[in-house]
C-alpha cells in the first residue's frame, strides 16, 4: 500500500514537473516569438530610416552641386531662390531650404508655412545661425560629406515652435574650386513621417533619447517629455530608477517589463532606444498557448489510434497505386519520347540501342526493329565510328567524358547519305545498370542559314572594300591634279618657245625631265593604290609602321583638302615614346589589306566627325592621331580624335549593323570592322570615349602571329 501510494505521489510530482517545464517552455517560446516579431518590426523601422536617409541624401547632393548654389553670387539670388522654391514645391515634407555662408549668415531661404504656403524669405528676415549646434557640426564636414542633426523640435528666433514641430535637418558643405563657401541646410517636417512609421507597426512604438526622455509616445502628454512642463523621463513612466535605463548600455535588446522591449536604434546618426509594446500582452498570449497545448495533447491522445489504422489502409492503397503507376509510366515514357522535338536514343553501356522515339525513324529512315538491339555505330560514320566505343568506356569508367557535352558531326542515314546533327548525351543508372540517353537534333537547316549568313557577310565586306577603294580613288584623283597642271604648264612653255624659235635643246631636255618626273610620281601613286587593296590568300609578315605609313602617304592629301591633320606616334609597348627607330618591334603576321581596310574606315569616321564640327571648333580639333604600341604578344593601334566624343545613347550600339547617325550612312562600317577583327584577324576592336573633353579613341589589338584562314 505504501509502495503504491509512493508511486502515486511520484507520478503526481512528475506530472506537475512536466506541466511546469512545459509551461516554462511555452512562456519562453511566447516571449521568443514576440521578440522575433518585434525584431522584424525593428528591421522595418530601420528600413524606413535608411530609405528616408538615402532619398534625402540624393536631394541635398543635387542641390549642393547645382551651379546656382556652387557658384552663388548675390546677383544670382533670384535663380537660387527659384531653385529652392521648385524643390519645396515638389517635396511636401520639406519645411525649409537654406544656403548659409561660412559665418552662419543665411544667404537664401525658402520656407513652407504651416498652411502649406511656400514663402521666399526677404533679406531683412534672414537670421544668423552661427550659434546653432547643427550649423557648427555641418561646418566641420569635409567635401562630399553629408550630416544629419538630432531629431528635435524646430526653434525660430530662439523660441520653440508651438504646437510642437518635429524637425530633422540635413546639411552638406558647398565647395567652389576646392574652397568651402557655405552649407546647404534642409529642414524636414517629420510629423507625417512619424505617423507613417507608426502606421506600419503592429506594436506601440516609443522612442527615447540617451538622456532618457521620450521623443515619440502614444500618449501626447509624454511625447517630447524633455520639453513638457514639468519635464519627465521614461524611468518615471515605467516606474524604474534612472540607473536601470542607463544600465542597458549597448545590449542587443532589453525587456523593460513583461510587455515592453527596448532595442537600440541609430536614427540619422543619433543614438536612441526604440521601445515596442505589443498590443497583446505576453501573459495573455501565454495562457492562450497553454490552452492550445492542453487541447492538442488531449486531441492527440484521443486520435492516436486513428492515424495508425489510416496508415495501414494507406500503405495497402499505395501498393496498388504503385502497380498502376508502373503501367502508366511505361505509356507515359513512350508518349513523352515521341512528343519531344528531338530524336532520342537510349543505349546501354555496350552501345546497344534499347529504345528510340518516332523522330529517330523519321530522321534516319529506319524502322524500330531495324535499330532496336543494334549497336549505335550503325548511324555513326568514320572517323567517329571507331572512336565511339572508346567514348563509352571512358564515360562508364570515369563517370565523365560525354556527360552533357554537345558534339556536332555528320550522321549516317539508312540510304548512306550524311546529315549534320548535334548530339547531347546524358548518363543515368537504373538498378546498377548504366544507360546513356542521346538527344539528337538535325542541323541541316541551321547549316544552310550559316552558309547564307557567311555569304552575306562576305558580300558586305566586299562592298565595304569597294567603298574604301572609291574613297581612295578620290585621293588619287586629288593627287594627280597637281602633276597634270604642272605637265600642262610645261607643255604650254614648250609651245611658246617653239613658236618664238626659242626652243633650245637644253631647255627641251629639262622640260622632258620635269614631265617624266611628274609622270613617275603619278605612276607611283597608282602603284600604291593598286597594292593597297591586294587580297592576301595567306597571312604574311608585315610591319605596322609600314602599314600606317602607306595609309598616311596615300590618304594625307585627301585629309589636307579638308584641313584635317594626321599625326602618327610610335611607342615601345608602354606608351609615351614618340620614336619609330625600332622597326622590328612592330613586325607581325596578319592580312595587311584587311588591317588597312579597318584603319581606313576608322580614319574616315574621324574625318567626317571633324568635318561636322563648327568652324571655330574645327580649327582647334582638326587632328587625327594614330598611336602604335608593341608588346611581346600583340600590336596595339589607336585612332583618336577630339571631335566631340560618342554619347551614351549611341555608344552601346555603334557596332550594330545598319545603325548610323549619319544622314546618308548605311551603318555597316564599324560592324564590318568588328567582323574582320573577330572572325578574320583574331583581333579585338574596342573604343573609349570622353564626352567631357570630346575625345574618341578606337583601339585595335592584333596578335603577333595569325594562322592562315
Write the layout of secondary structure elements.
Layout: H1 2-64, H2 67-70, H3 77-90, E1 94-101, E2 106-112, E3 118-120, H4 133-139, E4 147-148, E5 152-153, E6 155-156, E7 159-160, E8 166-176, E9 179-189, H5 191-199, E10 203-209, E11 214-216, H6 234-238, H7 242-246, E12 254-257, E13 260-267, E14 270-278, H8 282-302, H9 305-339, E15 343-348, E16 353-356, H10 358-364, H11 368-371, H12 384-398, E17 406-412, E18 418-430, E19 433-442, H13 444-499, H14 505-532, E20 540-543, H15 544-561, E21 565-570, E22 587-590, H16 592-611, H17 615-618, E23 623-630, E24 634-641, H18 648-651, H19 669-680, E25 684-690, E26 695-703
Parallel strand pairs: 21-23
Antiparallel strand pairs: 1-2, 1-9, 2-3, 4-8, 5-8, 6-7, 8-9, 10-11, 10-14, 12-13, 13-14, 15-16, 15-19, 17-18, 18-19, 20-22, 23-24, 24-26, 25-26
Helix pairs in contact: 1-8, 13-14, 13-15, 13-19, 15-16, 16-19
InterPro entries: HATPase_C_sf (IPR036890), HATPase_dom (IPR003594), His_kinase_dom (IPR005467), HisK_dim/P_dom (IPR003661), HisK_dim/P_sf (IPR036097), PAS (IPR000014), PAS-like_dom_sf (IPR035965), Sensor-like_sf (IPR029151)
Domain Histidine kinase: 475-706
Transmembrane segments: 291-310, 331-351
Amino acid at each position: 500500500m505504501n509502495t503504491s501510494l509512493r508511486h502515486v505521489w511520484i507520478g503526481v510530482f512528475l506530472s506537475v514537473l512536466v506541466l511546469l517545464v512545459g509551461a516554462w517552455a511555452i512562456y519562453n517560446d511566447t516571449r521568443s516569438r514576440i521578440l522575433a516579431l518585434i525584431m522584424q518590426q525593428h528591421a522595418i523601422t530601420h528600413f524606413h530610416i535608411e530609405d528616408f536617409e538615402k532619398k534625402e541624401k540624393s536631394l541635398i547632393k543635387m542641390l549642393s552641386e547645382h551651379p546656382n548654389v556652387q557658384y552663388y553670387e548675390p546677383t544670382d539670388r533670384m535663380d537660387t531662390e527659384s531653385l529652392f522654391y521648385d524643390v519645396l514645391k515638389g517635396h511636401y515634407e520639406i519645411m525649409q531650404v537654406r544656403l548659409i555662408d561660412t559665418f552662419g549668415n543665411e544667404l537664401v531661404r525658402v520656407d513652407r508655412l504651416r498652411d502649406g504656403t511656400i514663402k521666399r524669405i526677404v533679406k531683412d528676415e534672414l537670421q544668423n545661425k552661427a550659434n546653432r549646434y547643427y550649423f557648427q557640426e555641418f561646418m566641420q564636414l569635409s567635401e562630399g560629406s553629408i550630416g544629419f542633426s538630432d531629431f528635435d523640435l524646430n526653434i525660430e528666433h530662439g523660441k520653440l515652435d508651438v504646437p510642437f514641430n518635429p524637425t530633422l535637418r540635413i546639411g552638406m558643405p558647398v565647395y567652389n574650386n576646392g574652397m568651402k563657401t557655405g552649407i546647404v541646410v534642409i529642414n524636414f517636417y517629420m510629423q507625417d513621417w512619424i505617423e507613417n512609421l507608426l502606421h506600419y507597426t503592429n506594436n506601440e512604438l516609443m522612442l527615447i533619447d540617451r538622456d532618457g526622455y521620450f521623443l515619440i509616445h502614444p500618449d501626447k502628454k509624454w511625447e517630447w517629455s524633455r520639453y513638457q512642463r514639468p519635464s519627465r523621463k521614461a524611468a518615471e513612466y515605467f516606474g524604474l530608477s534612472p540607473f536601470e535605463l542607463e544600465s542597458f548600455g549597448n545590449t542587443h535588446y532589453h525587456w523593460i517589463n513583461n510587455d515592453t522591449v527596448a532595442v537600440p536604434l541609430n536614427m540619422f546618426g543619433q543614438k536612441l532606444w526604440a521601445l515596442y509594446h505589443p498590443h497583446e500582452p505576453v501573459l495573455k498570449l501565454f495562457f492562450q498557448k497553454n490552452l492550445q497545448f492542453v487541447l492538442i495533447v488531449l486531441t492527440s491522445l484521443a486520435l492516436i489510434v486513428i492515424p495508425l489504422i489510416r496508415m495501414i489502409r494507406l500503405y495497402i492503397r499505395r501498393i496498388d497505386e504503385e502497380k498502376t503507376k508502373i503501367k502508366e509510366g511505361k505509356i507515359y515514357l513512350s508518349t513523352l519520347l515521341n512528343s519531344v522535338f528531338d530524336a532520342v536514343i537510349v543505349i546501354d553501356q555496350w552501345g546497344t540501342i534499347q529504345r528510340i522515339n518516332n523522330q529517330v525513324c523519321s530522321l534516319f529512315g529506319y524502322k524500330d526493329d531495324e535499330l532496336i538491339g543494334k549497336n549505335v555505330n550503325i548511324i555513326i560514320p568514320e572517323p567517329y565510328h571507331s572512336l565511339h566505343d572508346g567514348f563509352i568506356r571512358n564515360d562508364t569508367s570515369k563517370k565523365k567524358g560525354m556527360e552533357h557535352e554537345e558534339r556536332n558531326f555528320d550522321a549516317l542515314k539508312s540510304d548512306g547519305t550524311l546529315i549534320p546533327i548535334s548530339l547531347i548525351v546524358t548518363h543515368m543508372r537504373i538498378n546498377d545498370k548504366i544507360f546513356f540517353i542521346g538527344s539528337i537534333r538535325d542541323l541541316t537547316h541551321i547549316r544552310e542559314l550559316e552558309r547564307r549568313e557567311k555569304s552575306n557577310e562576305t558580300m558586305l565586306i566586299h562592298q565595304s572594300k569597294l567603298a574604301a577603294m572609291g574613297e581612295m580613288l578620290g585621293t588619287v584623283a586629288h593627287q594627280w591634279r597637281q602633276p597634270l597642271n604642272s605637265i600642262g604648264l610645261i607643255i604650254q612653255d614648250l609651245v611658246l618657245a617653239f613658236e618664238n624659235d626659242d626652243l633650245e635643246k637644253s631647255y627641251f631636255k629639262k622640260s622632258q625631265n620635269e614631265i617624266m618626273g611628274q609622270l613617275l610620281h603619278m605612276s607611283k601613286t597608282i602603284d600604291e593604290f593598286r597594292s593597297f587593296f591586294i587580297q592576301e590568300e595567306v597571312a604574311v609578315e608585315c610591319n605596322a609602321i609600314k602599314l600606317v605609313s602607306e595609309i598616311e602617304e596615300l590618304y594625307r592629301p585627301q585629309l589636307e583638302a579638308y584641313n584635317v591633320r594626321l599625326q602618327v606616334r610610335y611607342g615601345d609597348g608602354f606608351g609615351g615614346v614618340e620614336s619609330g627607330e625600332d622597326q622590328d618591334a612592330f613586325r607581325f603576321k596578319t592580312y595587311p589589306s584587311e588591317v588597312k581596310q579597318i584603319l581606313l574606315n576608322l580614319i574616315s569616321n574621324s574625318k567626317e566627325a571633324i568635318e561636322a564640327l563648327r568652324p571655330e571648333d574645327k580649327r582647334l580639333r582638326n587632328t587625327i592621331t594614330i598611336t602604335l604600341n608593341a608588346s611581346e604578344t600583340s600590336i596595339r593601334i589607336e585612332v583618336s580624335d577630339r571631335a566631340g566624343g560618342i554619347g551614351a545613347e549611341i555608344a552601346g550600339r555603334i557596332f550594330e549593323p545598319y545603325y548610323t547617325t549619319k544622314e546618308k550612312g548605311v551603318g555597316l562600317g564599324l560592324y564590318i570592322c568588328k567582323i574582320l577583327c573577330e572572325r578574320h584577324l583574331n583581333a579585338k576592336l574596342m573604343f573609349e570615349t570622353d564626352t567631357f573633353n570630346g575625345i574618341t579613341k578606337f583601339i585595335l589589338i592584333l596578335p603577333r602571329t595569325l594562322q592562315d584562314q
